[in-house]
Amino acid sequence: MPALRYRVVHQLPGRLRLRLPALGAPGYAPDTLELWLDALPEVREVRTGVATGSLVIEFTPTPEARARVLERLRAYVPHVGHDALPVPTGEPDSGLAPVATSLLALALLPLLPPGWRLALAVTSAAPTLARGVDTLVNEGVKVEVLDAVAVGLSAARGEVYAATVTDLLLRLGAYLEERTARRSDRMLARLLRPDPAPAWVERDGELVRVPGDQVEVGEIVQVGPGERIAVDGRVIDGVALVDQSAVTGEDVPVRKSLYRRVICGSVLVEGRLRIEATQVGAETTSARVARFIGDALTKRSVTQSEADRLADQRVALTLGTGAAVYAATRDLRRVQSVFLVDYACALKLGTPVAIKSGMARAAGNGVLMRGGEAIEQLAGVDTLVFDKTGTLTHSELAVTDVEVLATHPGCDECDLLALVASIEEHASHPIASAVVDAAQARGLEHISHGEVDYLVAHGLSADVAGGRIMIGSRHYLEEHEGIDFSPFEPRISSFHDAGKILLFVANREGPVGLIALRDTLRPETPETLARLRALGIERLVMISGDRRSKAEALGRELGFDAVHAEVAPEDKAAILMRLQDAGAKVAFVGDGVNDGPALAAADVGIAMPRGADIARATADILLTDDRLDAVADARALALSTMRLIRNNFRAAVGINTAILVGAASGRVSPLASAVLHNGTTLAVLLNALRGVDFDGAEERRLASPVDD
């Protein structure tokens, strides 16, 4: 496939302007190209101009970065499907053209005779005046109406310089606000990189380069150093280090070898892999992440809706203040100053920019939030409910104890484990896998045995040197094989009280041994629960389908306030609703198919990354990195984001009110009013865009006796 054609028009250190004849054609959508280049860490900003066919790229000013940028551009694969990608962009960027028009008009005014100056001022301000009239007719009294009245009053009084400068400031403020809002979108857009990346596929004995969504399930994809993995799949050959940070938020590359799962959107750092594609196109992890975030941007939080409502109210306040000032003073200059004070921009734009910034920061740390409502709700949660398996623990079991019973003193732990593992390797259930893994970890050798007989859901048996060995549940061995384990009841009970499950081993002579297993507790679980309490969670609850003694043992160990054991899947949601009826605001963390109703019933549903599709679809928050402390990260970020929104709201209202008072009293001129207002708005937006540093900051703030 031919490389993308371009021509370098102008270049400076760290900046390239290119001419792309294909820009805007099918498969070459501007947003898609911008996202493709934005994937490079060296790229700082990308701007496209469809009308001129130009592409401006700002990057780290080094020759190596320039080479990587051009190499990335040449590697772009046009594909019409790119255009359907849900890219979070705002209104089209009007650029600096309106600002340049006002500057040109201001420069020409001194050169024209007095009669022409008014005509030029009105012509230059015509778009502002027309927008005000259109808004008044179609939407009522909004900020555009106030801007038009302020500029129109200056022009009507013959103050051509004041009218032109005021219009210039309004346009410059609008441009800066637009650029700031778009920058917040770009932060999220980096998470929605074009899908598919190109892939090298083995077809008919040849290696063919195709768009990633044209790979079919079951095909073999080869990936080399520096290349992006275009499919979800499993490794069938090779060893490599893979950077998954763009998808999972992991800080360091991870090792991938035979049969390991790889994720679309990851970058191969070192080595080579042959991958069998298991999910392609819209079903890949990165595509699901893109849809999740795309859907999230359509959801408005209560806080955002309230900000919009208050902003509209403040327009009426400004209008009423202007009318009162004119009635009291008959001073149109004061009225102009009052009308240039606009609460709406800072209030309406500050909240969504802060939310998008928070979403982008969270996604970079392995947490996907389904819009501002999820952030707001998580900040207000006081009770956190965990499903045990797959959340507090890994899904895999691990052997904790191997005990040879007194009836076989000549056998040691290693002998027993090697024997059981040699038979269990023929089974595929989790207990068998755990026993085999434990034997391999100890380097135990395989023990020969005869044909294995199965009794479904009970156990298995096989002939070995010295007799027949039977392995399985106590019920199977006692009820079906007549083996009595009651003499060892105290030891069995102690294992059960410790929350462990048992695999019973016997031969024709009687009991041989016990193998105890337990869910593997995530190493970060205790610290995560402590962090959540520090972040204001008042009540921690665990739900488990395990027998009561096992669940309560784990609950005591981890310090849960309540443990619900032996819970049927359909009863999880009922437990959450009872907590809600008692006045709690509840978040639920789960991963299984049976967690779907609970995730939907909770005020906030949080799904683990390896969870079932229904869990991910139902959840308000999806973790992409398989670590429990991401739940605490999400809570910290939600609290910090809401605090940032409140601080910005107070600043916007307080400063603009001060400007309004100064304008009404005649102490602030129209020009000063426009400058101060736009400066305040931009400061609020930049503060929102800066976002929050929630890595430990929120815990420290909550631990402080003084709350800001």
TrEMBL record:
Source organism superkingdom: Bacteria
Residue span, P-type ATPase A domain: 196-292
PROSITE patterns per record: ATPASE_E1_E2, COF_2
Catalysed conversion reaction: Zn(2+)(in) + ATP + H2O = Zn(2+)(out) + ADP + phosphate + H(+)
Entries under Gene3D superfamilies matching the protein: Calcium-transporting ATPase, cytoplasmic domain N, Calcium-transporting ATPase, cytoplasmic transduction domain A, HAD superfamily/HAD-like
Pfam families documented for this protein: E1-E2_ATPase, Hydrolase
Enzyme Commission numbers on file: 7.2.2.12
Record's keyword terms, sorted: ATP-binding, Cell membrane, Membrane, Metal-binding, Nucleotide-binding, Translocase, Transmembrane, Transmembrane helix
SUPFAM superfamilies given in the database record: Calcium ATPase, transduction domain A (SSF81653), HAD-like (SSF56784)
Compartment list: Cell membrane; Membrane
InterPro entries named in the record: ATPase_P-typ_cyto_dom_N (IPR023299), ATPase_P-typ_P_site (IPR018303), ATPase_P-typ_transduc_dom_A_sf (IPR008250), ATPase_P-type_domA (IPR059000), Cation_Transport_ATPase_IB (IPR051014), HAD-like_sf (IPR036412), HAD_sf (IPR023214), P-typ_ATPase_IB (IPR027256)
Family matches, as PANTHER family: CADMIUM/ZINC-TRANSPORTING ATPASE HMA2-RELATED, CADMIUM_ZINC-TRANSPORTING ATPASE HMA4-RELATED
The family this protein is said to belong to: Belongs to the cation transport ATPase (P-type) (TC 3.A.3) family. Type IB subfamily.
Name recorded for this polypeptide: P-type Zn(2+) transporter
